[in-house]
Design brief:
Oligomer: single chain
Shape: globular
Helix content: 40-55%
Strand content: 5-15%
Length: 433
């Protein structure tokens, strides 16, 4: 519920170095991992769907907002996580998917998108109208972006009233939005948002909300998306340098109840994440790093499978997913450049992890299930676990993780989430000492 999020942000506003991480993934194994981690921590779980993953037409996952909600709640129920500890969020909600259409046409679809999310019970709404549409200039003024965000907020407020949500939505705004899923070009540095630009964005949105008659909703704007200077491309991570963002980090101190939301925090070190929270990026978004870890563990299991299972019975997972990506290149082709060998490596190993778009393809799902089935039917030798999944090996030896394929995958994904737990919860730091 949004009150759980509001409570964490109030504590941060009072000076506690606390935050919350947001799991931005629709993959069931990633969501299951996050549920297990929340149970262990006794914490709320924030899970977000993005506008291209999930929309009123189904998105690339085939799920509408109510389908995504039901998926998360069903996984939570299976593990005993109470639904009132789950916060559902919508990320990049706006005309993003329809940028090739005229602005008014795209905005009408964005209105229907927002309404579908709110009616499904999503209570954290990122209003993102920063992208130009077909008949827009290349760069939008803050005033235009803010007016469109306020227009969508009005739709959200109306839908929340009509379905009698027990708690009105909390909103995130901001125009300094990193590219979803990481940059497609090679990066050498990323400049943090200019302090004056951040203040101008806040002012433009507040005026637009009040002019649109949704001043009450402005009081529930809890976060601003700004660029702290973090990003990743295919092979490189730009690490957070707090000295470069020192002036920017002070902006929220002039606005009670407002924190920063950091996108593209994937692959940052645990210490960098902790510093981001301390510097008022109290909401940390993570997505590709989780499915990157998923891919690592699945490929490791397939290597283990090759040692244990006769060739005619193997899953051939990597071959299957590579074949699907080559036959359906729309999700990676415009991002991965170079010769054939370079593209082949990027399809599997890029930090931007475009392979994540293909795990729900039926042939790939069947191969993954075959992999799990094959390895569940035989005892996995400890030396092979050590060879291919060394992070999990010691936990298996200690009895903390079962030597079962799915358990090994979930634990490998948790190794990423634990960096975020360390950053967001001071108790986690104490436990590590």
């Amino acid at each position: 519920m949004s009150s759980l999020l509001a409570d964490i942000l109030r504590r941060h506003d009072r000076g506690e170095a606390v935050g919350i991480y947001s799991v931005c993934s629709a993959h069931p194994l990633v969501i299951e991992t996050a549920v297990i981690q929340a149970l262990e921590d006794g914490s709320p779980l924030l899970v977000e769907a993005t506008s291209n993953q999930v929309d009123q037409f189904g998105g690339y996952t085939g799920m509408k907002p109510e389908d995504f909600r039901d998926l998360v709640l069903e996984i939570a129920r299976e593990h005993g996580l109470e639904p009132d500890r789950i916060i559902l969020g919508g990320d990049h909600l706006g005309p993003n998917t329809w940028q090739a259409e005229p602005a008014e046409q795209a905005m009408k679809k964005a209105e229907a998108l927002i309404e579908s999310y709110v009616r499904a019970g999503f209570t954290k709404i990122h209003l993102d109208c920063s992208m130009p549409c077909a008949d827009d200039p290349t760069t939008l003024d803050d005033s235009v972006t803010a007016e469109r965000a306020a227009r969508l907020a009005a739709v959200s407020e109306k839908a929340a009233t009509e379905v009698a949500l027990t708690e009105k939505p909390l909103y995130i705004v901001g125009t300094e939005v990193p590219v979803p899923g990481g940059a497609s070009e090679t990066l050498t540095e990323v400049e943090p948002t200019d302090e004056a630009a951040a203040r101008a964005t806040i002012g433009a949105h507040e005026r637009a909300f009040r002019d649109a008659g949704v001043g009450e909703a402005w009081e529930r704007v809890v976060g601003l998306v700004v660029q702290p200077g973090v990003e990743f491309d295919h092979t490189r991570v730009i690490a957070y340098e707090r000295g470069l963002a020192r002036g920017l980090s002070q902006v929220t101190e002039d606005h009670d109840g407002l924190v920063f939301e950091a996108h593209s925090t994937d692959y940052q070190t645990s210490q960098n994440l902790k510093e981001l929270v301390e510097d008022h990026w109290a909401i940390l978004k993570v997505g590709p790093a989780l499915t990157f870890a998923l891919r690592e563990s699945l490929f490791a299991l397939e290597a283990l499978e090759a040692e244990l299972i006769p060739e005619e019975r193997r899953s051939n997972l990597r071959e299957v997913v590579e074949g699907v990506m080559l036959s359906e290149p729309g999700r990676w082709q415009k991002y991965y450049h170079g010769n054939q060998d370079e593209q082949r490596l990027l399809r599997s190993y890029s930090y931007s992890d475009r392979i994540r778009y293909y795990w729900n393809v039926p042939e790939v799902q069947a191969a993954q299930e075959r992999l799990f089935s094959n390895l569940s039917e035989t005892k996995l030798p400890l030396p092979l676990i050590s060879q291919y999944l060394p992070l999990q090996y010691q936990k298996v030896r200690d009895g903390g993780v079962s030597a079962e394929p799915k358990a090994l995958v979930l634990d490998h994904i948790r190794s990423v989430l634990k960096d975020y737990v360390f950053a967001c919860d001071p108790r986690a730091e104490e436990a590590r000492v």
